[in-house]
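Methods — Computational structure assignment.
A single polypeptide chain was analysed. Its primary sequence is given first, followed by the predicted tertiary structure written as structure tokens.
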Amino acid sequence: MKILVLNGSPRPSGNTAKMVAAFKEGAESSGHEVNVVDVCKKNIKGCLACEYCHGRGNGKCVQKDDMQEVYSLLKEAEMLVIASPIYYHGLSGQIKCVIDRFYSAAYPVGPRHLSKIAMILCSGDRDQYVGARFSYDGDFLGYLHLQDMGFITVAGGVTADKLEEAKALGASL
């Protein structure tokens, strides 16, 4: 299976990155192809709400930035993993820009091969996931009708148990 992981953390060695690495290790050990995009290292602008993609663009975004790489990987992906730290009860702004730009990728229908989703979230407090969960349920399970493969949260620092949970999720696919 082709898996696209969107890492929305600006910290290259932070908790989110550690969880992504564990998930990737588990998934690759089961023979899956995993592409990780560190969206904070990319030049990806927010959606312009210009509606070009739903008109003359026929599903293509008018903006030509690093989102083109994500669109290319998304076309082939069978599973999507959204990984993010929690900022103010929601996903990081960098990953939110990418998700908003899915507007064009989901027109007139969602990515052809994409059928599964998982989310990995890290926060300093265990009660901070409501906003991100709302996006996961509404945007991905509801609107795109993707199959829920797992929702992992990490409160505080990453522990060996949490790393094993991420690795096991990847291996179980």
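Note: The first strand starts at residue 2 and ends at 7.
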